[in-house]
Design goal:
42% of the residues lie in helices and 14% in strands. By secondary structure, the chain is an alpha/beta fold. It has a single domain, classed as TIM Barrel. Helix 11 packs across helix 12.
Length: 348
């Protein structure tokens, strides 16, 4: 039977992945409190539908940073995708192309920016700043020359969170799979992130924007204070993110942090959110709380792991259909037409 939802794809992926890769993709930091809460927090927010609204002419189409996409859901950056399936990042890009949405390519991808660009997908490049400035500059140059339209600077990883599943399995990238940024395989996540700078600061937003000529979004903000600083330092957008619960355990779920960030931004830039997206209703809740769009990482990775490009494509189709239905059932005709009163906190 064909999978009906993200949960079905997660179960299939768990059957097909070896323990090391499965633990890497599924796991979080520490006791995995935040990992679980990212998903569970969506249950604390309830939709408040308005009825007898004409929703015959409903669309999921929207824009992010002025770029038209078919739905308010983007493909989040996920590392090492060829470890999950040989189709890897190019397969994910083709799935995003078919869905007419944006793919955000990870710095530590197993495909070069040019390989992803060759698919024709709308594309952003997620960036870590390296201790070796030459690596950072080279990656930015590759992204610019390959037609990526934004940089997504990840700011919550000055050091790698303690991901105990990886330590238990001894997970490492297979030697035959190359990490494009380094031109080598066989690295562990700890060895990979040991090459990232611990000295990234707010000044880097303006520096990277100047270096690339591209808008720079800041990914990893969960407080109003940092949201304000991001705006003050020229960020083109903010992604409310706790790195999928993989960095500092015990921080707020992203959907709970979203209202504080939106309030602090006060319309100056667009706000996106990732973490815990498993249903189209999750996306609509995020829209009601002020997000322009959401990004999904694990949900699409499970599709890729279970069925390659076609699996990722089917997950995107399922989520778009769920978003469309949820919009109609809450009484809205587009992602831009979801007011704050469509969601409320569940009574404890």
């Amino acid at each position: 039977m064909e999978p009906l939802n993200v949960w079905d794809y997660e179960a299939l992926a768990a059957e097909r992945l070896d323990p090391g890769p499965l633990g890497y993709y599924a796991g979080g930091a520490g006791d995995e409190l935040t990992l679980r809460d990212n998903v569970e927090a969506y249950r604390r927010w309830q939709l408040r539908p308005r009825v007898l609204v004409d929703v015959a002419d409903c669309t999921t189409a929207t824009t992010v940073l002025g770029q038209e996409i078919s739905m308010p859901l983007l493909v989040a950056p996920v590392a090492f995708q060829r470890v999950a399936h040989p189709d890897g990042e190019p397969g994910m890009a083709r799935a995003a192309l078919a869905a007419d949405t944006i793919m955000c390519l990870s710095t530590i991808a197993t495909a070069a920016p040019a390989e992803v660009a060759a698919t024709g997908v709308k594309r952003w490049f997620q960036l870590y700043v390296f201790k070796d400035e030459g690596i950072t500059r080279n990656l930015v140059d590759q992204a610019v020359s390959a037609g990526f339209t934004a940089l997504v600077l990840t700011v919550d990883t000055p050091v790698l969170g303690r991901r105990e599943r990886d330590h238990r399995t001894g997970f490492a990238i297979p030697p035959e799979i190359t990490v494009a940024a380094f031109g080598q395989g066989g690295l562990t996540p700890v060895e990979t992130f040991a090459q990232m700078s611990q000295s990234v600061s707010w000044r880097d937003i303006e520096r990277l924007a100047s270096m690339s000529g591209l808008p720079v979004l800041v990914k990893g903000v969960i407080t109003g204070e940092d949201a304000h600083l991001a705006c003050e330092h020229g960020a083109a957008g903010i992604v409310v993110s706790n790195h999928g619960g993989r960095q500092l355990d015990g921080v707020s779920a992203t959907i709970d942090a979203l209202p504080e960030v939106v309030h602090a931004v006060d319309g100056r830039v667009e706000v996106l959110v990732d973490g815990g997206i498993r249903r189209g209703t999750d996306v609509v809740k995020a829209l009601a709380l002020g997000a322009r769009a959401a990004l999904a990482g694990r949900a699409l990775l499970w599709g890729l792991a279970a069925g390659g490009e076609q699996g990722a494509r089917h997950v995107l189709e399922l989520l778009r259909a769920e978003i469309h239905m949820a919009l109609q059932l809450v009484g809205c005709t587009s992602p831009a037409d979801v007011p704050r009163d469509r969601v409320g906190r569940r009574a404890h």
